[in-house]
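FIELD: query
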Amino acid sequence: MPSTILNLKPVSGMFECSRRKLQTLQETFERAPTEGRPSELVDYSNDFEWSALLRDKLHSIFKLPNFHTIQEQVCNASMAGTCSVL
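FIELD: result
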C-alpha cells in the first residue's frame, strides 16, 4: 500500500468523527420541542422598529461607521427575542 494512502487514514477518521457529531446534533434538533421556534424563516437584514436606534447606538457609543459582517442581523435576531447561535 502506498504511504500516501496510509497518511490519509487519520484524516479520514477525523471526518467520520465530525460527520457523526453533526448527525447527532441534527437528530437532537429534530427531537427538540418545536414550541418557540419560528414557523417561517425571518430575514433579519431588513429594517425593524428598533433599527434606527440600533444604528444610532453603534455610532454614538461604539464610534463605528458600520456593522461588521452579519453583526446587524444578529443584533436584530436578538432584539426580536430569537435564540441565535453564531
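FIELD: remark
The chain has two domains: 1-33, 41-86.
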